[in-house]
Amino acid sequence: MHDSVIALGSNIGDSLTILEAAVKTLHKIPGITGSMKSSWYQTKAIGPPQPDYLNGCISLRADIEPFKLLEILLQIENQFGRERKQRWGARTLDLDLLLYDDLILHTPTLQIPHPRMTQRAFVLVPLAEIVPHWIEPISGRTIKELLDDVDCSDVCLLTSN
C-alpha cells in the first residue's frame, strides 16, 4: 500500500459539485482503501484572466503505482470534460498527483513531488489541513513548514464546506 496526495481544482461549471463528484469517483477506484479530504478553498487563478478556483486536496491509501495513478487521474479529468487548450487556463477539473510516499521522480510525463507545489498556497493550505507533518522529500521540510513560507492572502475557506 502507498500513501499519495492529490490536489483538486475547478473553475468552470458547478465547481463544488464537480469536485465532490471527482472525490466520489476516486473512492470507487479498485485498490484505493482510504482517504482524507481537505475543506474546499476559493483561490485566485494563476495564468490568463479567468474565474477564481475552488481547490482542495485528498490523501489516498492505495495499491496503485504512480504511473497508473496518473493515468486514472487523467481519465477522471476527461470524464468531467477537461480540455487542455491553454497552459494554466480555466478548467472543469484539474487533478495533480502531488506526493507519493517519499518518492522523487522526474520523467517527461510525471514529476513527484509536483514541481510547483511548494510555491503555491492554493495547494499548501488544503494539504496542511490533512497532512501537515508529511515531509516533502526534496526540501526535507514538512508541509506545515512549507506553508509558513507562502502568501496565503488569496486563499479563502469556502463557507459551504
What does it look like?
- With 161 residues, the protein is an alpha+beta fold.
- Helices cover 26% and strands 29% of the residues.
- It has 4 helices and 10 strands; from the N terminus they run βαβββαβββαββαβ.
- It has helices at residues 15-27, 66-79, 121-130, 143-147, and strands at 2-10, 32-37, 41-43, 53-62, 94-100, 105-106, 111-112, 135-136, 141-142, 155-157.
- Strands 1, 2, 3, 4, 5 and 10 form a 6-stranded antiparallel β-sheet that branches.
- It is globular.
- The mean pLDDT is 91.
Question: What is the fold's blueprint, element by element?
Answer:
Layout: E1 2-10, H1 15-27, E2 32-37, E3 41-43, E4 53-62, H2 66-79, E5 94-100, E6 105-106, E7 111-112, H3 121-130, E8 135-136, E9 141-142, H4 143-147, E10 155-157
Antiparallel strand pairs: 1-4, 1-5, 2-4, 3-4, 3-10, 6-7, 8-9
